[in-house]
């Protein structure tokens, strides 16, 4: 199972018991982003039990594309790489990872 699929399936932040899943996704082309699920994160469900239909994405290494799909989730559209994206559907995150060549080390 890839890191992204594990995050979607099970909480990784902040109160999930050890060992905690990583929260950084590294793509094959070098694109990186934080993906968080669990109680206290901007995700759905809001509990520490997955699977999650929406996750929190943060601090991508470049603006997520297509921007029209991502801007509605962005906290600060003036700084798209230095912000958090709330309640992003898992399908959008999967599509973004695929656009960047998949996970580097799934």
How does this structure look, described?
- By secondary structure, the protein is an alpha+beta fold.
- It has one domain.
- Helices cover 20% and strands 18% of the residues.
- The chain has 3 helices and 4 strands, in the order αβββαβα.
- The protein has a 4-stranded antiparallel β-sheet, covered by helices on one side.
- What is the number of beta strands? 4
Put simply, the count of helices is 3
pLDDT averaged residue by residue: 90
- Give the helices and strands as they follow along the chain: HEEEHEH
Global structural class:
alpha+beta
State the helicity in percent bands.
Answer: 10-25%
Spatial order of the strands in the main sheet? 1-2-3-4
C-alpha Rg (nearest Å): 13 Å
User: What fraction of the residues are assigned to beta strands by DSSP?
Assistant: 15-25%
Assign an overall shape: globular
Distance between termini?
Answer: 7 Å
Low-confidence stretches: none
What summary fits the major beta sheet? 4 strands, antiparallel
What is the total number of structural domains?
A: 1
């Amino acid at each position: 199972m890839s890191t992204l699929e594990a995050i979607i399936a099970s909480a990784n932040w902040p109160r999930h018991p050890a060992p905690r899943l990583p929260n950084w996704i590294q793509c094959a082309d070098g694109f990186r982003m934080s993906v968080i699920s669990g109680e206290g994160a901007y995700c759905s469900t809001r509990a520490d039990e997955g699977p999650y239909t929406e996750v929190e994405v943060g601090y991508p290494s470049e603006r997520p594309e297509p921007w029209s799909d991502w801007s509605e989730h962005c906290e600060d559209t003036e700084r798209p790489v230095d912000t958090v994206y709330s309640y992003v559907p898992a399908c959008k995150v999967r599509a973004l990872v695929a656009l960047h060549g998949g996970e580097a080390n799934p």
